[in-house]
Amino acid sequence: MNPTLTTLMAHRSIRQFTDQPLTATEVDTLVTAAQHAPTSTFSQQYSIISVTDPAKLAVLSDVTGHHWLEQAGHYFIMVVDQYRNQQLVPATATTTANLHSLDKLLAGIFDATIATEAIVTAGESMGLGSTIMGSILNDAQRVIDLLDLPPLTFPLLGLAIGHPDEQPEQKPRLPQPLMHFTNGYQRLTADDPTLVAYDRLITDYYHARGSHQREETFTHHIISEMNRDPQNRATILTTLQHQGFLVD
Amino acid sequence: MNPTLTTLMAHRSIRQFTDQPLTATEVDTLVTAAQHAPTSTFSQQYSIISVTDPAKLAVLSDVTGHHWLEQAGHYFIMVVDQYRNQQLVPATATTTANLHSLDKLLAGIFDATIATEAIVTAGESMGLGSTIMGSILNDAQRVIDLLDLPPLTFPLLGLAIGHPDEQPEQKPRLPQPLMHFTNGYQRLTADDPTLVAYDRLITDYYHARGSHQREETFTHHIISEMNRDPQNRATILTTLQHQGFLVD
Description:
The structure is a homodimer. Chain A is α+β, with helices and mostly antiparallel strands. Chain A has 2 domains: 3-168, NADH Oxidase (3-Layer(aba) Sandwich); 176-224, no CATH class. In chain A, 41% of the residues lie in helices and 12% in strands. Chain A has a 4-stranded antiparallel beta sheet with strand order 1-2-4-3, with helices on both faces. In chain A, helix 2 (24-36) crosses helix 5 (102-125). Chains A and B meet through helix 1, helix 2, strand 1, helix 4 and helix 5 of A and helix 1, helix 2, strand 1, helix 4 and helix 5 of B. Strand 5 of chain A pairs parallel with strand 1 (46-50) of chain B, so a sheet runs across the interface.
C-alpha cells in the first residue's frame, strides 16, 4: 500500500489534543491542500475562516456542545460562499439570480465539503488528527453573526485539528456488499445475514475498545440517532433562506 | 513535502483515459478508502454504485453531456442513502421521521461528498485520474430510474476514474487572502488589487496551456457560469421531495 492509501485507511476522528498549536506554516499548507482539491465548474465557491479568538471559540464550543474544541491546535469553519463570486460581477453585466438556486447551493456544499476532506487527509499525513463538526448547524445563525458572514454564504462544517493526544480504535465499517453495488441498488432487509454479522462486529468493537465501552450494535446506534430530538436543527432551512439561498 | 501532500497538491481533473479498465482489486481499494473516510455520527449514510453496463453508461453520458465518461476505466455514482438505515429499524421500534429532514439530507450529502474526495485522492496516489460530475443532476430522476434507487436515496455525484491519457496544466487557485480569513469574513470588492492580479494570472494560464486556449479571466469565467441556463436543474428540489427528503 502506498503512503497516501495508508494515511486514508488509518483515519479516525481525534478529540483529544496536546497543547501544541499549529504553526502558521502548517495552517498555510492545509489551506493550500484544500485549494488544490476539485471545485465545481472551477468556481471556488467556498471560503475558510480560521477561528483563533478564545471568546469566539467559546461560542462555537457552546453551539456544538463539543467543549474540547477549545483545546484543539487550530479550528476552521468551512463556509459555502457564492458571495465572493457575486461581488466579482459588475452590476450591469448579468443577472446573479442563479447564485440563489439549490443547484448553486449544492455546488458550494460540494466545494466546501471536498475541501474539508482534503484538509483532514493532508493533516493526517502531517501527523495531525481532526474531527469534522456538522454540529455547528445546531445554531447556524449564531455562527453567521459570530463571523459576520454576508448574504450568499453559509457556515457548513467546523473542523478541529491538532496534535493527537489519543489513539482511538478504528470503528469497523459496513461490509462492502451492503454499500457497494453494481449497475443498480440492492435493497437490504433487517434480517440480512451480512448485517447480523456486522451488528455482532460492532458489539465486539464496543466491548473491546479502551474507553467508553458500551453495549451497542450498528442497528441500535442508528435507532438512537433517529430518536435524537431534531428540534435544534429545524431552523437550518430558515437560516439558509435568510442568507439568500432557496428563495425563488 | 510528504507523498500525500504531493498527491493532493498535484490534483487536476482528467477527462481522457487509456483503454485500460480498473481491476476488481483497484475498485475494491478505492471503495475501502472511501469507507475509512469520516462519516457523520458514524451513520454511513451513503452507498456507491459501480456502473459497468455500457447501455447504462450511455444514459449517463446523455444526462451529463460528458460523452467521454464511456471511455473511463471505471464509473461510480455516489448516492446519499438514508434508506438502508431506515430498513435497519424494526417497524415498532421508533419513528424514522427525522430521516426525511434537511438535517439528515445534509448528513448524507457530507458522507457521500467526503467519500468522493477520498476516492479521488486514493486514485491519484495509485496513478489514476478522475473527474467528479455534478452534472448527473441535469436529470436526477432519470438516474434514479436507471439505477432503481429506492426512497430516501439520491444520486449526488458521478465519478469517472481511470488511467490518464493526458497531463493538463493545473489551474491557478485564488490567492489565499481572498478565501482564507481569521475570526471573521472579509468582504471583497471587484476592484481589489489582489483580484485584479489573479484575473491576469488566469488570463496567462489560458494563453499558455497546451489545448483549449482562450481569452479568459476568473471574473469572466464566473459571469459565464451565472449566465448558463439553470433550467435543467430546476427540478432538483422536486426530485429530492419525490425521494422522500424535505417533505414535512
